[in-house]
Amino acid sequence: MSTPKPEKELHLPLSRVKTIMKSSPDVDAVGPEPLYLVTKVTEIFVTDLAKRAFKNTKSNLLEYKHIAEIVQEDDTLDFLREIMPRKITVRQFKELMAKKAAKGNESDESSEESSEEDSSDESSSSTTNPDSQNS
Amino acid sequence: MAEKLEDLNLPLTVVTRIVKETLPDGVAISKEARTGLAKAASVFVLYVTSAATNIVKNNKRKALTGQDVLEAMADIEFDRFVEPLREALENYKQAVSAKKMASGKKKDDNDDVEMVEEDL
Predict the structure, then answer these.
(1) Cβ-based contacts of A10 with chain B (< 8 Å)
(2) What UniProt keywords apply to this chain's record, in alphabetical order (chain B) (predicted)?
(3) Total domain count for chain A?
């Protein structure tokens, strides 16, 4: 944001972007102009994603779960959902569903533990919350 | 071509640097978050590419153009990227024509654009 750098400079290596683009069966040749734009937009994309994920953090540490959260919430990021599943505990999952159900109501952020476990439990996406919010 | 599988991923260090530049100073990024972002960026490249090639196909053309990339943004509902991208394209075109002026006649089909990269 506050970078005084000239904006036209690209960071990502064009050659690598080109390789990735060419790995698509529909692409034979990639001209310099589309290559530049794809590279540019990828940089915009990754900064945009990081910024939005950072808004989910409460500390100064950006973690995987913050990014995964954005990915799962934003339908335009559907293409990332398979590679960035939410990794949460079952308990957190239930809390989250309860929270979602409570959305619209005024619900302040309840205690959110940051116990990260690698149980990527998203197969059971049924909304069975045993404890509905106490009203 | 992609000989190794790593060739289909964007370099982690570069992606991390881009992200660090955009976040406030002093923000740490976990290892998993870094790999996640790099992966996401790599997949995005393909995602945009296929959206743009779809436009090319639908118009029964062959070559992918910058305009196709711009239009692809709307198709994948990233309209908010269109403006910055359009600006980038303008700048790019200017830079290219300035370069051409400087070096007299230069072949246009030169595929590789040279870009100066700071330390990798």
Answers:
(1) 115
(2) Nucleus
(3) 1
Fold classified for B8-21+29-104: Histone, subunit A (1.10.20)
- The residue segments making up the domain with residue A84 are 14-102
Residue A41 covered by a domain = yes
d(CA B53, CA B75): 12
Structure tokens at B18: 């881009």
Structure ipTM over 0.85, yes or no = no
List beta partners, residue A105: A103
Structure tokens at A103: 């959305």
B73 interfacial to chain A (CB closer than 8 Å): yes
How far apart CA B120 and CA B117 sit, in angstroms, is: 7
How far is Cα B109 from Cα A74, in angstroms, rounded to an integer? 39
Q: Which residue of A has its CA nearest to B96?
A: A33
Mutate to test the interface with B, among A35, A44, A86 (most CBs of B within 10 A): A44
Taking CA atoms, A98 is separated from A86, A109, A118, in Å, by 16, 12, 21
Tokens of B114: 């040279």
Interface of B with A in 36-65 (CB under 8 A): 36-37, 39-50, 52-53, 57, 63-65
The string of pLDDT tens digits covering residues A22-80 is: 999 989 899 999 999 999 999 999 999 999 999 999 999 999 999 999 999 999 999 99
Residue B10 and residue A20: Cβ atoms within 8 Å?
yes
pLDDT digits (tens, 9 = 90+) for B86-100: 999 999 999 889 988
Contact call for B69 and A12, based on CB within 8 A: no
Residue A85 lies in a domain: yes
Backbone dihedral region for residue A104 (phi beyond 0: left; psi -120 to 50: alpha; all else: beta): left
> Any CB–CB contact under 8 A between A49 and chain B?
yes
